[in-house]
């Protein structure tokens, strides 16, 4: 029932998204500034950190909901000091909430079906390729050959990590690919919404409020309110820390999308996998195989190509 209601809501929002897209001016492409690169990389570090918090938890689904709620709680104190997003951005905020709900649901399903060494690279590696392949049609952003080469290189490096997976699952692959489409979709929705909002930070904070409501309503209907409340009481601090990192990470990415091509920022953000590799060895004491180091070198080359593009 919840999914049908979300699909119905999304069908009402999509026509308004189309109208806003027609009003969006063609975005001129400039070389990626160093400050944008550094802030996106810092956001990638934050992204890897909150994913590590989810990985270390005992209940991936509820921990993901807690991270989402922590982001909303972190956003609340700042809303009074920021302007409201422009009216053209509100349909995008609504669409993003539905897509974020689907994203967290698919993350949980994929991790239940397969190893993180397979799932995470597929989700994060396929998404920027999808954005790069379609950004010319959707956003009228025409990337240079060098920028496209950098995006493909970073994505190839991320996907190389899938070779580390010891066993594969058809369901895990299906969930991962489906979530890559969701990630690409909300990348477009939020990239456009942030530009139309007039203030990327304000857009990010308002966008963060609805997904945890949907996630906890779904969790309570499926598992019972007492189970959810018990988990929240024991793990609220994890959600607050991870949520603050999550909202800061995505806010930096959306800000960067107002300064640079969406496809380029989306690809650069996938360097979070490098930080995840470091955390997996330093914190979780996981053994790193040869393909992890190969992927790290490929991703680093991709970042360099993007800088020189």
Q: Taking all residues together, what is the mean pLDDT?
A: 79
Structural class of the helices, strands and pairings? mainly alpha
Task: Find the count of extended strands (DSSP E, 2+ residues).
Answer: 0
Strand % is under 5%
Helical content stands at over 70%
Along the chain, the helix and strand elements come as HHHHHHHHHHHHH
Give the count of helical stretches. Answer: 13
Over all CA atoms, what is the radius of gyration? 18 Å
Parts with pLDDT < 50 across at least 5 consecutive residues: 24-29
Number of domains: 1
Cα distance, first to last residue?
Answer: 47 Å
**The biggest beta sheet, please?**
none
Shape: globular
Describe it.
With 309 residues, the protein is an all-alpha fold. The chain has one domain. Helices cover 81% and strands 0% of the residues. The protein has 13 helices and no strands. The longest helix has 33 residues. The protein is globular. GO terms for molecular function: transmembrane transporter activity.
What distinguishing features does this structure have?
single chain; 309 residues; mainly alpha; 13 helices
Précis, in short:
This protein is mostly helical. The chain is built from 13 helices and no strands.
Itemize the secondary structure elements and their pairings.
Layout: H1 2-23, H2 34-56, H3 60-79, H4 90-113, H5 116-138, H6 145-160, H7 170-197, H8 200-207, H9 210-223, H10 225-257, H11 262-269, H12 272-282, H13 290-308
Helix pairs in contact: 1-4, 2-3, 2-10, 2-12, 3-4, 3-9, 3-10, 4-7, 4-9, 5-6, 5-7, 5-11, 6-11, 6-13, 7-8, 8-10, 9-10
Transmembrane segments: 29-50, 62-82, 88-111, 118-139, 145-163, 170-188, 200-219, 240-257, 263-283, 290-308
Domain EamA: 173-306
Organism: Rhizobium etli (strain ATCC 51251 / DSM 11541 / JCM 21823 / NBRC 15573 / CFN 42)
